[in-house]
Amino acid sequence: MRQENSICFSNINQPESWKIENYMASGGYLQWKKILQGQPGDKAREAIIETVKSSGLRGRGGAGFPTGLKWSFMPKTEKQKYIVCNSDESEPGTCHDREILKLNPHALIEGIAIAGFAMDATEGYNYVRGEFIKDCYPTIELALQEAYSYELLGKNILDSGVNFDLYNFLGAGAYICGEETGLLESLEGKQGKPRFKPPFPANFGLYGMPTTVNNTQTLASVPKIIEQGSAWHKGIGTEKSPGANIFSVTGHVKKPGNYELPLGVPFADLLERAGGMMDGKNLKAVIPGGLSTKVLPGNIIADCTMDYESLASAGSALGTGAVVVIAEGTCMVELLKRTSRFYYVENCGQCTPCREGTGWLYRLLQKITQGNGKESDLALLLDVANRIEGNTICAFGDAAAWPVQSFIKHYYSEFEYMINNHGKSIAA
Amino acid sequence: MSTEITETVVLTEDIKEKIDTWVAKFPVGKQRSAIIGSLHAVQEHNQGYLTPELMDAVADYLDQPRIYVYEVATFYSMFQTKPVGRNEIAICTNISCMLSGSDMIVQHIEDRLNIKLGESTKDGNIFLKKEEECLAACTGAPMMMVNHQFIENLNIEKVNKILDELEQ
Fold it and tell me: Is there a smaller number of Cβ atoms within 10 Å at the N or the C end of chain B?
């Protein structure tokens, strides 16, 4: 097996890995201190951004945008700048940021501080989803207090002249706040309705100031990359997908879990790592990157490697690395109905195609599963999905459309059978 | 009713202190950002739901238009604007939990409590929240939150034990 736990999970098997003493004992905060104790000026900032750029790190929140490039978009201005961490983990099937918050909160704090320094942002917010209020929010809040008590955050940190203050924020239950501009609206105390872009957050972000939003796993990867260097990071994974990714493997597997493995790991190896199929069943389908990515039939994913290119060429995406494994015997119509209900309930109500269309999708699927479907409903489903896709302010609309398009594309006969047999499933 | 009277009637010193902690996290004049945190504090203190009086008190204390607070309270699923049971159960039924049998868990709890998702028991003890979001504990599916504590790898036996405890 390839090397596991090389980046964000490198220290999580140590006892009480979340405590600052233990993080520091394994080299934690050394990179932050080095930056502070060196010459923390513009040259140092450029060097960090250059390292992150050449490391090939891509945003792990789902979109996969090159992190260093994103950082370089921050304008050089005297205005207050912000770094915001997106810990609003809510893409269905995804649960690795929660593990980082619980088991390696200091890597995240160090990563946010380094990112803040690199972009000359002296204030940072970590937006944690509201449901974590009693789960991992206390852990990250305690870790933040520890970092302050060790004087690693605040004003004139370790007499370096560098200021950086970080605050944890709590959401209150809204999937849409994972979208970066929806998140910023929420952070401003408003409904989490995504903003029209451009302007992008780098120019008009939190309170209208230059802001960069990065995902938890992305930022928690930064200290290790600075410590080991960009060449080391590029050596993990594939040429176009460097580094490792935490795969949340769930569904019909024997050992569901979060596995940090090099990008490019063959799907078959990942499945094996997760104990293989439950009850010896055959693999039917996989949603490879969270619910918003397109479903792939078992025979297609079997030949894929888990990286940006391979999954894109197979017709899906790496997304958040949430790998939902589906066994033979599962009704794909019921699964799509549940999926569509989620997008129907969670849409923010701002754009008409999405607000109205997601309701249409869910109601049509309800009609089919209740045995009242017509053959023409399948064309209608696709028509509605196609009219949502690309016609909304944010990518939520696409995320609602893609499952419908891909489920019908790959499992047309299942939908057809149910329509012709008064709601009876061919699979179950 | 004047603003001042509403405040003194419903916000305790303890709540005000919590709200002040949230306000302190944001730049001066950006206390609108503290609305969500304030509502969390107020709702927890009021046994799990918000009232118009409480929302108004938060708005007045933060010196924000009341509509700002209503907008937030009605947008986010964690805020309840109608009375609900004291103990909140939220069963995840999203993709990974569904594949791992969450529908059976829902059915069992609905049957045992004799209420549907979205309802509270008659004695006001348990609120069965209609949870649509994935709760990000998919590797422990099926799971549910009981008063925001994550309880994973559910089975009927485990669920019964939790309900027994809540019903004591």
Answer: C
A335: chain B residues, CB-CB within 8 Å: 95, 98-99
Contacts of B40 in chain A (CB under 8 A): 130, 133, 170, 172
Q: Distance from A324 to chain B by nearest Cα, in Å?
A: 7
Please judge whether A291 and B94 are an interchain contact, meaning their C-beta atoms are less than 8 angstroms apart. yes
- If one looks up domain A20-235 in CATH, what number appears? 3.40.50.11540
Q: For residues A88 and A126, what is the distance between their CA atoms, to the nearest angstrom? A: 9
**Domain-by-domain residue ranges, chain A?**
20-235, 244-327, 332-420
**CATH for B87-167 (3.40.50.170, 3.40.630.30, 3.20.20.140, 3.40.30.10):** 3.40.30.10
- Look at residue B1 and tell me whether its pLDDT is greater than 60: no
Mean pLDDT of the region B83-106: 98
In whole angstroms, give the CA distance from residue A205 to residue B124.
43
Measured between beta carbons, the chain B residues lying within 8 angstroms of A189 are 30-36, 68, 72
On whether ipTM exceeds 0.90, the answer is yes
List the CATH code of the domain at A332-420.
1.20.1440.230
Q: Please give the residue of chain A at the shortest CA–CA distance from B30.
A: A188
Q: What is the pLDDT of residues B109-134, one digit of tens each?
A: 999 999 999 999 999 999 999 999 99
3-state SS class at A372: coil
Tell me the pTM.
0.96
Q: What is the CATH number of domain A244-327?
A: 3.10.20.600
Helix H or strand E encompassing A245: strand A244-251
What are the pLDDT digits (tens) for A278-304?
Answer: 999 999 999 999 999 999 999 999 999
User: Does the pLDDT value for residue B5 go beyond 60?
Assistant: no
